[in-house]
Design goal:
Elements (H helix, E strand, L loop, with lengths): L7 H5 L5 H10 L4 H8 L3 H11 L39 H6 L9 E5 L2 E5 L1 H13 L8 H17 L1
Antiparallel strand pairs: 1-2
Helix pairs in contact: 2-3, 2-4, 3-4
Amino acid sequence: MYVNNNDFDTITKGLRTKSDKIRALARKGAATADIARYLGIRYQHARNVLVSSGLHARRDDKDTELVGSESAASDPAVAWVRIDALGRLQIPASLMKTADIMGDEPVHVRASENKIEILSRRGALKRAHAIAKQFVPDGVSLVDELIAERRREAGRENG
């Protein structure tokens, strides 16, 4: 989508920070260079804001939408992202929020054929509980079973 420079004032009206303006303009399809010129900032500043927000498209992505843009996917749980040559993956904030993953926290990563799965700690714990539940009949308390077993063992040792 192309944004006319005359629309920039309308798009940025009410936004206080330059970073907010950069993101808003990019979501509407404005080119990074046009955003920098409009705001009177260096291109690199605008690009850095967009990269850190997951909104910057590489030059070889001319035929694709911006990652994380409103028109790229109406579902906040879906996005195309790139893995760089060092294996780093930048996940858009909307995906992180949907997955309940905070920045700079450990995640569980599992690879299988044609996919990589990333789980938050909470997600990995839920999965572990679901697996364990398959092997424990309803109404059985593993804690009570463990205590009873330990008491029987102690009785045999003392008796």
